[in-house]
Amino acid sequence: MRRVVLYMLVTMLVVACTKDSINEIGIKDNGADTIYAIISDFDVDTRVELNDKRQTVWTENDEICVFDNNTMDIYRFNGKTGDRSGSFSLIASHAISTKNCVFDKPYAVYLADHKVSSYSDHSPALYSTLPSVQEYKKSSYGLNTNAMLGLSENGRDFKFINIFGYLRLSITGDKVVKSIKLEGNNGEIIAGQTYFNTSGIAKANNTSEKAITLDCGEGVQLTDEPAVFYFTIIPTTFNKGISVTITFDDDSLFPKRTSNSITVSRNTILPVASFNSSGDNVQWQTISVSHTGASVSAPYFEGETDLAGLIYWGDNFMSNINYVTSYTYTDNEPSHVITTKTTNATYVKISNCQGITEFDLTNF
């Protein structure tokens, strides 16, 4: 098999306080036998990851693919985890049909698991899948989450740009975090199948995911020093804010919610203000509703800006407050007990709930 090497140099510099971004770096010509690529504008991680200087470094066995009108070539990283530069060797070449799609120049894509389609004008549409369950990695993004597009004028020199955006949570407390669920309060699509054009503009497939769970494996011990957690998401505006649900190793839950509109753009890290998850500091309000029937309208809450809470539907399913308007049971049980757990709520409305047998507002 012929050997083609691709050299990657990864250089990052944080230049903003509220949204982290990276200055663009120039491209140099390495000659006809090599391809030289630079990540242009951000500290990303997929299998690549961040070092202690907030610079992107490669991970062993990273792969990219290079498309043109006839072939898709796959290259594998020859270096070690932590390297900021190194060579990529050609490991496979596949013939592809692009009869409905015209590449005006070669493009490289990272990760190397993408599909090609076309827009109505026959320009390339590249498909990727952003996992809705992402793996926690200390001080970095989860492995196998991010996507990058490599642009080139001559087929040898590629400059990579980032497709997704990134949200960073900083959490203090005294428990062990097992997972964190993130979702928009207006049902925004933030993960799943995504397609993007050759300018790196990404859009979500309508069947994609509305929530992302960050799996923390054996757990992350919280302390008075904020622990940092990253989510890779499809760029979007959360018009009604976001909800976060932390699951601890004792199976207890901690919800946090903001109603402010926030935008996560391509190639930026959006930090969310640090918050304390210690349950002893939270005055929880609870209500319970016992009822019969196969479906029920969701309790609706109003309150202060930092209103947050969870609804337990009584069939082992849970959702954030004000996230769904109704719920249909699938367990065929004749009755259920809805319980809610909220903070900073000042008003609750329950309507269209048939067969109520008990309604307890003692702790609201």
Please tag this protein with its features.
single chain, 364 residues, mainly beta, 2 domains, eight-stranded mixed barrel, five-stranded mixed β-sheet, 32 strands, elongated, disordered N terminus
Description:
- By secondary structure, the protein is mainly β.
- It folds into 2 domains: 5-279, no CATH class; 283-363.
- 0% of the residues lie in helices and 50% in strands.
- The protein contains no helices and 32 strands.
- The strands form 8 sheets. It has an 8-stranded mixed barrel.
- Mean pLDDT is 75; it is low at 1-38 and 41-48.
Mean pLDDT: 75
Number of domains: 2
Principal-axes geometry comes out as elongated
Share of helix among residues?
under 10%
How widely separated are the two ends?
70 Å
Structural class: mainly beta
**Number of strand elements:** 32
Report strand order across the widest sheet.
Answer: 1-2-13-12-8-5-6-7
Q: Mind summarizing the main beta sheet?
A: 8 strands, mixed, barrel
List low-pLDDT spans: 1-38, 41-48
- Number of helical elements: 0
Q: Please tell me how large the radius of gyration is.
A: 24 Å
- The amount of beta strand, in percent, is over 45%
Summarize the structure.
With 364 residues, the protein is mostly beta strands. Helices cover 0% and strands 50% of the residues. Strand 9 and strand 10 (124-130) form a beta hairpin.
Summarize the helices and strands and which ones pair or pack.
Layout: E1 5-9, E2 34-39, E3 49-50, E4 56-57, E5 63-67, E6 71-77, E7 85-95, E8 107-110, E9 115-118, E10 124-130, E11 133-135, E12 148-151, E13 157-162, E14 165-172, E15 176-184, E16 192-196, E17 202-204, E18 211-221, E19 227-233, E20 236-238, E21 242-248, E22 253-257, E23 262-264, E24 269-271, E25 275-276, E26 285-292, E27 295-297, E28 300-312, E29 318-320, E30 326-328, E31 335-349, E32 358-363
Parallel strand pairs: 1-2, 2-13, 11-18, 14-24, 14-25
Antiparallel strand pairs: 1-7, 3-4, 5-6, 5-8, 6-7, 8-12, 9-10, 10-16, 12-13, 14-19, 15-18, 15-21, 16-17, 20-23, 21-22, 26-31, 26-32, 27-30, 28-29, 28-31
